[in-house]
Amino acid sequence: MGLFGAGVLVVLGASYSPLIALVLAAAVVIGTIVVVYAPRLTLVAMALVVPLERVGRFGNDLDLQTFSAMRMVGLAAVAAVFAQILIRRQAVELPRALVLYGLFVAMAFGSIFYADDPTATQGHAITMLGNFLMFFVLVQGVRDFSTVRLLTFMWLLATVVIGLYQIYTWHFQVELSDPELGLSSQRLSTTYTDLSERSTLGEVRRAIGTTSNPAVYGINLLLALPFVFWQLRVAPTLLWRAFWIIAGGVVLYNIMLTNTRAVFLFGAFLLVLITATRLFRLTLYTLIGVVIGGAVVAFYLPASIWNRVLNFAAYDLSNATNLSWRFELWAAALRLGLEHWVTGIGVGNRTAIIQYLDPTRFDAAWIMAHNEFLQVFYELGVVGLLLFTAFLVTLMWRVWVTAALLRALGQDEAHWFAVAAGLSLFIGIVFSLQVDAFHFPLKGWWLAAGLLVVLDRMSMAAQEARTGRETA
Question: How far is it, in rounded angstroms, from Cα 13 to Cα 241?
Answer without folding.
Answer: 50
